[in-house]
Amino acid sequence: MPVYALNNVTQTYNGRTVLDITALTVQPGEVLAIVGPSGAGKSTLLRLLAFLERPSAGQIAFQNNVVNEQWPDLAARRSVTLVFQRPHLLRRSVAANVAYGLKLRRASDVKGRVAAVLAQVGLAERAGAMAGTLSGGEMQRVALARALVLQPDVLLLDEPTANLDPYNIGLMEQMIATANLMQRTTIVMVTHNIFQARRLADRVGLLWDGRLVEVAAKEAFFARPSSPQTAAFLNGEVVY
Q1: Does residue 239 fall inside a structural domain?
Q2: Which of 94, 208, 233, 240 has the maximal Cβ count within 10 Å?
Q3: Domain with 138 in it
Q4: How far apart are CA 143 and CA 82, in angstroms?
């Protein structure tokens, strides 16, 4: 049973269709990377998968339940976590930011779980620091830690390492891979970095002008693209 199944899904803003997906499935425990030029609809797709928006038309099924007929209940929505490209942290300490979601859910052993995930992301010594004093890479790591500490079934990532240095990129990618391997977290990741997609993904899809023109296993996507748009994107050609 797929985690998500999208059929004839469109999203329209002010009369302009920005997303038009005929079919897409996301399988349990996989890492699906979505690549494509700016303005292709990648972030819009993530907002639909996170239940932040309803599609203008079409059907989205989550764990075999059609979600645009009956909005997901709280338990279903809590099983999905989205990490935005620009982290929005609270004006609190690093530890308080990571603990926030756990406290809302009245989880047990909040202190221990926060300490464990901060150690995992290399921020144990920064637990008491105010979020506003962090570097950009540290903020991104806190945002990812805040998501991972909830142990979601599905993790949605919008350009998780954009504008980060190689050290922070390596740490973030290690966290993502570990969550997928150890917790079997299903991950849908939007990225401009085709090398990152190649390192982390099981399957890769190309969004082009709001349409999903190709989805394939990683090896086939990069070695034997079936569409001219994919070949052009992989070759680094300018896309309009």
Answers
A1: no
A2: 94
A3: 4-234
A4: 10
CATH number for the domain harbouring residue 201? 3.40.50.300
Residues 6+ apart with CB under 8 A from 66: 59, 60
Separation in Å, CA 22 to CA 191, 205, 223: 21, 13, 24
- What's the half-sphere exposure (Cβ side, CA atoms, 13 Å) at 143? 26
Tens digits of pLDDT across the chain (240 residues):
899 999 999 999 998 999 999 999 999 999 999 998 888 899 999 999 999 999 999 999 999 888 876 788 888 889 999 998 888 899 999 999 999 999 989 888 999 999 999 998 889 999 999 999 998 889 989 999 999 999 999 999 999 888 788 888 998 899 999 999 988 999 999 998 889 999 999 999 999 999 999 999 999 999 999 999 899 888 887 554
Domain count, the chain: 1
224 belongs to a structural domain: yes
In terms of Cα–Cα distance, which of 46, 51, 99 is closest to 78?
51
Q: Which two tokens stand for residue 139?
A: 């903020």
* pTM passes above 0.85: yes
CA angle (34 as vertex; 41, 57 as ends), nearest 5: 40
